[in-house]
Write a structure and sequence with these properties.
- The complex is a heterotetramer, with 2 copies of chain A (268 residues) and 2 copies of chain B (323 residues).
- Chain A contains 7 helices and 16 strands.
- Chain A has helices at 9-20, 33-44, 86-94, 136-142, 175-179, 217-222, 242-252, and strands at 4-8, 26-29, 50-52, 57-58, 82-83, 100-104, 107-108, 114-115, 118-121, 126-129, 145-149, 187-191, 195-199, 206-212, 235-237, 263-267.
- In chain A, the strands form 5 sheets. An 8-stranded mixed β-sheet of chain A has the order 3-2-6-11-12-13-14-15, sandwiched between helices. Chain A has a two-stranded antiparallel ribbon with strand order 1-16. Chain A has a two-stranded antiparallel ribbon with strand order 4-5.
- Chain A starts with a strand and ends with a strand.
- By secondary structure, chain B is of the alpha/beta class.
- Helices cover 34% and strands 21% of the residues of chain B.
- Chain B contains 12 helices and 15 strands.
- In chain B, strands 3, 4, 6, 8, 12, 13, 14 and 15 form an 8-stranded mixed β-sheet that branches. Chain B has a 3-stranded antiparallel β-sheet with strand order 9-11-10, covered by helices on one side. Chain B has a two-stranded antiparallel ribbon with strand order 1-2.
- In chain B, strand 10 (163-166) and strand 11 form a beta hairpin.
- Chain B starts with a strand and ends in an 8-residue tail after the last helix.
- The chains are: A alpha/beta (268), B alpha/beta (323).
- Chains in contact: A-B, A-C, B-C, B-D, C-D.
- The A-C interface holds A 24-26, 48, 50, 57-59, 61, 77, 79-83, 88, 90-97, 99, 142, 144, 182-184 and C 17-18, 20-25, 28-32, 139-143, 197, 208, 212-213, 230-232, 234-235, 237, 240-243.
């Protein structure tokens, strides 16, 4: 009988994110979880990925363990190819050199629009205020493929985000181009703590691609505040591998401050 | 004053490039004079109530924390903060009643600042990091705006004064952001000379842009070096002296943040900042670390201590590339 | 082809930022592969008839002269040159029948090139140095244009495709210049690795902008160093490898110009270039220095010589700051 | 009786230019003669002037002797405060940090408009073609005070330049502002091999300020193709001093390649 693996929802999201990247491509890394994804991916799967940080670190190879909270520190920007500034960093993405971008989100809608600004109330008088765009708007606007990482809680998947912090497909096919955003860009995948979503070519709507081993597609989409497209064939995502977990727990975040979260399990 | 414009619900800081040029002509001396002074002196002379201030980098990395604490100590009012990473500085400036508006950027972190926004104690405008950096570049380049192909399609457009025009070359929509010429820029650097020539090692947000675009520039430096050092190594100069109004010698000036290759971040102190939620906690923190000490030196002696500083220095083991 | 637009009498090179982005996505590899090759190979693979080429710096200082001579040797046709300092390179490229259009810049010097313009053998468009640098910056930033407050009121406006619009923030006229995304950039550097990471010591015109904005980038380097050198000193990297398509090891690649801190300008050779007036003088110069030698190495051996190179190296006594 | 000094027209123009600068100000230096003016001025009169070269050398202190033909070489950019690039150099001038700019010219008109592009024919088919703007257009557009250096030959002073390469006062008062050029900028002085001109505040027209010792105002303006304003009081310019000539001839340009020209004389 299959062995059971235990892991946190965060660890699962990080592992999924890391598996999405291609080697020899560029990766615009957002603050927080995406930093861990980049480190894990580069160690395990894509040694030649070129990371870009918005404040001008090109091609950093972080020192381990990861120092929480920081992004501009010597550990994070260690052995970069080039150190520049923010306007240069966004020039790389604006002129098409950035293949992947990865962002967290508070809320996401069927078109992959991201809200990371506020929840409830109005912009002027929100009920809860969060960090907002940072460079997220630029990443989602410029990168060829934007990957969204979000905890799988129904209330986070809404028919319409309260505030479009970073653009997805906006109102649907052609809307990005109409708004003047660079052609052929947009959200590529949504990584959650239960599943992986893509976007339908024709409708630009979120589509379930695969779910964590042991979960049912219907169970996964049941509590989402909008219903994504659920095709007949939905794939299976294996849980974090021993290598992924060992690296995360022993080398990248031994203090377990970033990778902590709700415990989950699945058969290996 | 005339440097504040309004566009719908949005107030934004703007002046005609000609007004800024006139200021530069009249008020920015090109003479190499000794500008070394105490933080208290620099802040009292150069930072006024209602000023718009920017800084480089953040409270976690090479931020001008000693200068921010001095601004709080001198109880400036109604400041408008524009910075990519408005982290703990913004919480402290708002908590101390110094700041009433913030252009973001990334508004983080700890719950205090988010709550302050919800309570309406501080007004926030959204420009995004790319938009703010571009506004400052426009201010430095002496043009009224710069174009960009982001912000488009997002709701940030509606809560900023960015405009969308039809590009005359392609006919497609392009976003314009207005130039930003702050009243004051705080820039913490590794090395400076008494005239204001300054060097940063590692990445920066917009150090040269901000120095060029701002009416007044205060540089705080870990180390004061001889002016000749800059002429021996011109590729290493981040900011030339004639952009700078005051130079403050502030070892550990980025504390509790890290100064790359000099000392590491004090995560325990940062956690205390992150933990601030109530007004009482804020008052206590400010009293202990700002009002309760005469200056940065007393803060280091009484609140940090030589042993801690020694330890943080010893943790800064990565020096490769920082020269 | 579609990359050439027309505005009144003026032809200008322009493509929609989306077209350039698509090219970057499809054709610029981000993989670190060994790109070291001979100049003849780089030019034959990457430079085509009709291409728009830019270079950094000039025929007097750190210019890609070995690459320019190789382009002439391979008898490229109908090239369009865009460079701040179109000095002897432009005279040689026009004299050899390789170039038919020049965007200037500074069109100097020696009488040959001026006469060629008068004879209608080469078309010239005026963008000015600032305008050209800004066009390339726009190309690098992925925007269709950038604004500037010069060119206004001058006759250069009429012989370029710059446009004047009313700034929506101030209501005053502002000049826009269209983005430039050249086909090929030639950049001569002090050090490069086999992947294309490159370092220039001293000032540059627009090395990073041009590398970012161009479809194909050929770097020629005085010295090939280990890739690890760049990661040990990221502040010193001028161009990262993924912008570069070919790396040519070309010691004395800037000859007869100077390579700062490596060798001095050969004024006697430059005077021979300046003296060229007639077609016959041009033919003789080209035959002796370009067609008559197989490659850069043979040129150095037979036309310059070890003794001369040794002397020029010994004259480069100023090394302070060039590292 | 007064001793007679002999000097070239070039030496006189260089000396005049050097005497115009103020110490502790910034100076955007054009290619050629202005480089020599800057060196002489910094050695003799304005030790704290900050020179700017368009390709990004901020505050260079040239090594002597001057290397003809070069501007970007190590000798010219020696001991700079900062080495940048062209877009940064023009940012310094565009945002108002450059007090003085100095440019040569082929032709100049009563409003100080500069032609350095072509003479005769049309732009497309000129009779004689020259270097054109280079960065001259930016210098004349951005700097607070532009100084024009031009050999005193009547044909160079025309009622209307054939091509406005770098803007003077264009068509007169208010024209620069109307065109969108930065406020309160424009030509400040015209240095010739016989005289020094300024510009009338109200008409913006070229005005004779002073002439070389021994020359008469009427003699100086006689062969100019337009008649500048000639006020009652016209000053006298003393010839190059012994110090100026010694520096130029012995230290700056011992090969006499740049300072050569027509011999002139005046009483010391």
């Amino acid at each position: 009988m299959a062995r059971t693996v235990e892991f946190t929802d965060t660890e699962f999201m990080i592992a999924q994110g890391a598996r999405l990247l291609e080697d020899g491509k560029t990766f615009f890394v957002g603050w927080g979880i995406p930093q861990i994804v980049a480190i894990l991916a580069q160690k395990l799967y894509v040694p030649n990925v070129v990371q870009l940080f918005e404040f001008g670190a090109v091609g950093p190879q972080s020192v381990l363990p990861f120092v929480r909270g920081t992004m501009g520190g010597p550990q994070n920007t260690y052995r970069s190819l080039q150190w520049l500034n923010m306007n240069w960093a966004f020039s790389y993405s604006a002129s098409g050199y950035m293949d992947y971008g990865m962002l967290g989100a508070l809320q996401v809608d069927p078109y992959g629009n991201i809200n990371s600004t506020y929840l409830g109330g109005t912009f002027e008088k929100p009920e809860r205020r969060f960090a907002g765009s940072g460079g997220g708007n630029q990443v989602a606007s410029h990168c060829w493929r934007t990957v969204i990482i979000i905890k799988h809680e129904g209330r986070r998947f809404v028919p319409k985000v309260e505030f479009v912090t970073s653009p997805g497909y906006l109102t649907g096919p052609g809307a990005r181009e109409k708004a003047g955003l660079p052609k052929n860009t947009g959200p590529y995948r949504v990584v959650t703590s239960k599943a992986l979503f893509g976007f339908d070519e024709s409708t630009r709507q979120m589509t379930l691609l695969s779910v964590l081993r042991g979960l049912s597609p219907e169970g996964v989409v049941a509590d989402m505040a909008f219903r994504p497209i659920v095709p007949k064939d939905v794939g299976e995502i294996h849980p974090p591998t021993a290598d992924e977990l060992r690296l995360l727990r022993e080398e990248i975040d031994p203090s377990r401050i970033i990778i902590k979260g709700e415990m989950m399990s699945a058969s290996a | 004053m005339s440097r504040i414009r309004r566009e719908g619900k949005v107030e934004f800081r703007f002046e005609h490039p000609d007004e800024f040029r006139e200021f530069v002509r009249e008020s920015k001396s090109r003479k190499p004079t000794d500008k070394l002074c105490a933080a208290s002196d620099a802040v009292s002379r150069l930072v006024k109530d209602g000023d718009y201030i920017v800084y480089d980098f953040s409270s976690l990395t090479r931020g001008p924390q000693a200068l921010i604490r001095e601004v709080i100590r001198q109880r400036r009012k109604d400041l408008w903060i524009g910075a990519e990473f408005t982290l703990h500085e913004s919480a402290l400036l708002v908590g101390a009643g110094c700041a009433s508006r913030i252009d973001v950027g990334f508004l983080g972190y700890g719950n205090y600042i988010g709550q302050a926004v919800c309570d309406g104690r501080v007004k926030v405008y959204e420009w995004t990091n790319g938009g703010l950096a571009l506004r400052i570049l426009a201010g430095a380049r002496g043009v009224p705006f710069l174009p960009t192909r982001d912000l488009l399609g997002s709701d940030n457009l509606a809560v900023s004064a960015a405009k969308v025009i039809k590009d005359p070359y392609t006919g497609t929509p392009v976003c314009l952001v207005p130039a930003l010429n702050p009243d004051v820029a705080f820039i913490h650097v590794h090395q400076a000379d008494v005239y204001g020539d300054a060097r940063i090692f590692g990445t920066n947000l917009f150090a040269l842009e901000a120095a060029m675009a701002s009416h007044r520039v205060i540089v705080s430096a870990e180390e004061i070096v001889a002016p000749d050092e800059f002429r021996k190594d011109p590729m290493r100069t981040t900011i030339p002296y004639f952009l700078v109004d005051a130079v403050v010698h502030a070892p550990f000036g980025a504390y509790p943040g890290a100064m790359p290759a000099r000392y590491e971040i004090d995560l325990e102190h940062v956690d205390r900042l992150n933990a601030i939620r109530s007004e009482e906690q804020m008052r206590n923190y400010l009293h202990e670390n700002v009002y309760g000490v005469a200056d940065h030196e007393e803060f280091l002696d009484k609140r940090v201590g030589a042993a801690r500083m020694k330890e943080l220095r010893s943790r800064a083991t990565i020096i490769e590339g920082y020269r």
